[in-house]
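yo

u said u wanted the structure for the complex thing, so here. seqs first:
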Amino acid sequence: MELAVFILFALGALVSSLVVVTHRNPVYATMSLVLTLVCVAALFLMLGAPFIATLQVLIYTGAIVVLFLFVIMLLNIQREEHAAPSSGIQRWAAIFSALVFAGLLLGLFWRAHGGDPAQPALTEEQVSLTTLARLLFTEYMLPFQAIGLLLLAGVVAATSLARRPDGRLTSPDQELAHAPGDAPRAEEAP
Amino acid sequence: MSPQQIQFLGMIATLLIWVVFMLQVTPIMVWVERRGAALMQDRPGPNRVGPLGLFQSLADAVKFMFKETVVPAGADRPLYALAPLLALIPALSTYTVIPLGPTIEVGGQRLPLTVVPADTGVLLLLALTSLGVYSLIAAGYSSNNKYSLFGSLRASAQMISYELALTLAVVGALLPAGSLRLDAVVAYQQSHHLWNIVPQIIGFVVFLVASFAETNRAPFDLPEAESELVAGYLTEYGGMKFALFFMGEYMAMTALSALGATLYLGGWTVPFVDLFAVGAKIASALGGVPLLGAVAGPVWTGLIAALVLFAKVFLFLLFFVWVRWTFPRYRFDQLLRLGWKVLLPLSILNVLIVAVLILKGVL
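structre next:
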């Protein structure tokens, strides 16, 4: 039973991720990315990590991929025309990253199978939310804060890119808001 | 019966009560909505089919089923057909983590009256709710209609913006209970004889406003603003496909109402009333009656608890209707500004206040 469910979701993840990279229509590719992420979340759930599974759905499918779709629709990207022939440097970069990925995979396999077999399995207590939260705010406090800082830097960078030379933001929302003879602001609306 | 069978039956019964309630909410709420609108606009409203026009929704359902299915030219057919179904997935799954009643004891087994008593509780609910936006995006993209596309763009921007404020408001309500589980939140409010709405009125208001935006209801129904966008992402849908979107919207409203009732209004509890005593009293009163007399007291407790929760949910739903026919629609920039510059800071303030109160030992 468990094996059948695993095969179902593993196959789902593999097939949908293939569709992501091969489909010519970006909207379909993004939609199958959603399916991939949901399948992977199900696999997390089967591995006894409900928290990570939930976060995967909440953050990746619920927010990040929505933004992907939003941008694709906003830019009105239609079917991809014949891709430009890849240049030499792209080919070398592709080979290099494929090698790095293969190395990472091998390392993971080695750790999974060559690791200490005497290591006991994680208990319910060790993977509980409370333990996770405590670890995050004690032992892993520094990386946790560093990631937050990294995200903040990303936001600052994006904002500075979106700025015009005259220092105004270029979002239509702002332009509407500062248009002369503007209607009352949201806070003052009846 | 074996313990596993009792557990399984308990789960199925809880699920059935939820599903029946969720499916019945749409026709009832459509009637309430139309009659409510008529009441506020001083006109009779639908009053021909059945007493008080109660069967109007039934007639509408028949009409929906027999309507011709029209697919617009140039539509993206697979996505066009998939979108209404996607609308139902979050609507039919979110209630599974909301407790319908206390943990009762039947046949020596402890039955939690929650379909999925998961540790990640509210997070799971929020994750499933956030999937709702895909149906709107798929509908807008596949319809081959610029109004549909604009509607779905608005919907996705709006839902992402308000999800943050909503989530932070929920965090405030979870803090005193110290758990992501909704039954823990209910238990906290019951044991302290204090509904979260009292100390966290700011959080409650943020939650309420954000849930209006999350469900695309007036005054935040910009994705389907008929004066600008015909009907937004719904423009090209008709018949049963339209009805599915409609059901999805009402079910999402109901699920968020149930979450609000659980987080802020004490869930299934009634203040100063012991539902277990009430259940036992009913069971003893019905002791001699065949069939009904065989039902154990705790089961009655569960049923009454469910009715209490549903009553609170209807309070929320009536408020949704009231607001819809009272307030004019927001402009889109006003909507986004309200979300980011007012509600988000307010929800952070609420979390801060609650955290300080907990530190001081007040909560």
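The radius of gyration of chain A is 23 Å. Chain A touches chain B at residues 27-28, 31, 34, 50-51, 54-55, 57-58, 61-63, 66-67, 69-70, 73-74, 128-129, 172-173, 176-177, 183, 185-187, 189-190 (CB under 8 Å).
cya
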